[in-house]
Amino acid sequence: MARTLAVLTFDFQGYTNVFVDSLPDPEHIEVFRRYESFYRLLVRATDPDPGRRFASAREMADQLTGVLREVVALQTGRPRPALSTLFGPEPRVVDTELFADDGQDPSLLGARPLGRGATAPVPAQRPPGPLALPLPAIATLEGGATALALPVPLVDPDDPNAGFLAGLLAADPAEVSAALRTAPVDSVELRLRRVRAQLELSQEHDAGVALTGLEAAYSDDWRIVWYRGLHALATGDRETAALSFDAVYDAFPGEPAPKLALGVCAEVLGQLDNAAEYYRLVWATDPSFVSAAFGLARVLLCSGDRAGAVRALESVPESSIHYTAARVAAVRARLRQRAPYDALLGDLAASAAQVERLGEFGLDAVRRERLRTEVLGSALDWVLSGSSGAPPGHNRPPLLGSSLDERGLRFGLERSYRVLARLAQRGEERIELVERANRFRPRTWV
């Protein structure tokens, strides 16, 4: 059946002699290069070893349908999500804080030192040639948390402990570990759940020992390979993690979960192009995997593609609980570490509109005001550097309620910092915020 599908899909020359028991190299077949999942499906379905092929027509049909959804999503630009028969949804999304806190003032040119010796800020001048500015500080992925946020294989309903394990889904890891000792019988699912509990409790050594025993007893169970990948990712063995998840991708090419895991592995291995492709593939097919959007934005930023990162973040739908975090990250992706002599007016206006809209979505006051300071600070540096790209004349629309000139932006920054000072919980933080307000306020007689 798979070879017939191959013949119908591309000009399969030599399928009766040269490739009688194999497939052409993907480099020579465009459809294989474009749709890796389709190639992997045919490879498994035509494996010379019958034991390595799909176990049943139903299993192959499920994976073929998954590959078809992926292909249609890529061709039409419309997602084609579906419930998996092998994996549950993402348990959580741990990487929504895209940017590390750099602790810097939002305006590098506008802050004045306090006191009589204060000097005027020096406007930034456009350099004569291209200048490589440092990228914004991206938050680092934490291996253990990221591994445990990947989709979890579904429990086999025929396992003798299936009913027992169903009652432990939302329990605390320590409580789960204690409860597992009371299971009525031993089983594969029980032992796999124990491995996950050990990883959640940072007992990586015990989890590794348990996995070694499972591999010896059940060498053909793909779930053990998946958990080996989770364990390797949590312990920093990135190459083993990638090999494990790649094996699961080979076995189930229609599933988004192994592609998401491979995206994480490629990212931590520094293979940004590969990571972007895996993240893009998952996000284009199924927008319920929100970590793929954040992952795609993260690797695009690291590659210098700000516009692509913003598009990825702004594609997170309003229905997602991570919509607010995505839009906050999009504002920062537009403006952080931008050269003030660039034509920033469009990005400043778009960022200001996002901040105002986020207020309607319930963004808390502290985060809203901090985001306002970032937008206003970037605008102040842009104005002090000559307002590159601004239209002629003085009819500039206001930005977050402040006129788009030095005096108006300074008043806006001062106002936001005084609001933050009132909201501060600690005295030291309140004093620091008041001092920042004073550093940015325009010069007045009082």
Strand content: under 5%
State the end-to-end distance.
85 Å
Which structural class do you get from the secondary structure elements? Answer: mainly alpha
User: Mind telling me the CATH superfamily name of the largest domain?
Assistant: Tetratricopeptide repeat domain
Number of helices: 20
Query: Which spans of ≥5 residues are poorly predicted at pLDDT below 50?
Result: 128-132
Number of domains: 3
* Number of E strands: 0
- Average pLDDT rating: 89
Specify Rg, calculated over alpha carbons.
27 Å
Helix fraction by DSSP (H/I, runs of at least 4) = 55-70%
Q: How would you name the oligomeric state of the polypeptide chains in this document?
A: single chain
Describe the global form.
globular
Pfam family, one: PknG_TPR
Protein name: Protein kinase G tetratricopeptide repeat containing domain-containing protein
InterPro entries: PknG_TPR, TPR-like_helical_dom_sf
Domain Protein kinase G tetratricopeptide repeat containing: 140-444
